[in-house]
Amino acid sequence: MKHKKAKRFIVLLLFAALLWTAVYWCARDAAKAAAEKTGATLPFLLNVPYINQRMDYPTGCESVSAVMALQYAGVDITVDAFIDDCLDTGERPAYEDGVRYGCDPWEAFPGDPRSSSGYGCFSPVIERALRRAVGTQPYTVESLNGLTLDELCGRYVQKGVPVIVWATIDMAAPKPGSTWIVRDTGRLIQWMTPMHCLLLVGYDEKNYYFNDPWREAAVAYPRGDCTVAYDGFGRQAVVVYASAAQSSTSTIDGR
Asked: Same structural domain for residues 143 and 78?
């Protein structure tokens, strides 16, 4: 009697396994057929560790994006260590005798990334900070300014390298914000808003995907909106990757 029950149980188990397999492959084939019918393609996505900026780094999107890229590349570093040990910071814009002075965001971060009164900085500042973060370790840091988002995806993301890019919150169209004078040089800074830094981690035919420090991981934004936001900040982009992962830079960017 026990043997019969055991055999019956095994038969039921095998039947369930076969049924699950059939359902899985039917669902997979149906999804593939639907994609082929509509011309859609599944997104290409890198599984990059995600860090949210909202609680501890309200204006630290650049540092958070950089640390996500560093951790994915294999560098053991925290956002706090990156800010304290690697990031150049400077004078936050403030009025003095009726004139608003602040540091140059192309040279340093104006204020404190941990404060809501901080501003933001541009690619040369993060490039220098990344070089400090990797030090003499076998990592490569590259400025990719001027490349289109499609070129970044084809040359880097597709080859396993996420890209730090400058755009806007929710890919809104950039518009002029506040202005200030750099004390040492007299340079006029026209701040564009709502400036944001994100990590490009994937793409499909309709969207680009970002680890967005202000939102969540792998957020899809329409390609057209991304292009307007990205181009509005001069197509700024930076990467960091393990040098040992590629025999040369040309292997990654295709040049």
From this structure: yes
HSE toward the beta carbon, residue 4, CA cutoff 13 A: 1
Report residue 8's pLDDT band, with 50, 70 and 90 as the boundaries: low
Query: What is the CATH number for 189?
Result: 3.90.70.10
Domain with 3, as residue range(s), is 1-40
* Same domain assignment for residues 20 and 107: no
Q: Hunting for tokens 């040359």 — which residue is that?
A: 155
Read off the pLDDT of residues 168-227 as tens digits, 9 standing for 90 and up. Answer: 999 999 999 999 999 999 999 999 999 999 999 999 999 999 999 999 999 999 999 999
- Where are any strands of DSSP class E within 148-222? 163-168, 175-182, 188-193, 195-203, 207-211, 219-222
The rounded distance, in Å, linking the Cα atoms of 21 and 8 is 20
pLDDT, tens digit, 9 for 90 and up, residues 30-60:
444 444 443 457 899 999 999 999 999 999 9
Residues 14, 88 within the same domain = no
Instruction: Write the DSSP symbol of residue 43.
Output: P
Same domain assignment for residues 199 and 102: yes
Strands 89-90 and 109-110: parallel
Distance of CA 99 to the CA centre of its chain: 35
Tell me: do 5 and 123 sit in the same domain: no
Give pTM, 2 decimals: 0.81
Claim to verify: residue 158 and residue 100 sit in the same structural domain = yes
Residue 149 has pLDDT above 80, yes or no: yes
Task: Give the H/E segment covering residue 177.
Answer: strand 175-182
Contact 169, 159 (CB under 8 A): no
140 shares a domain with 74: yes
* N- to C-terminal Cα separation, the chain: 73
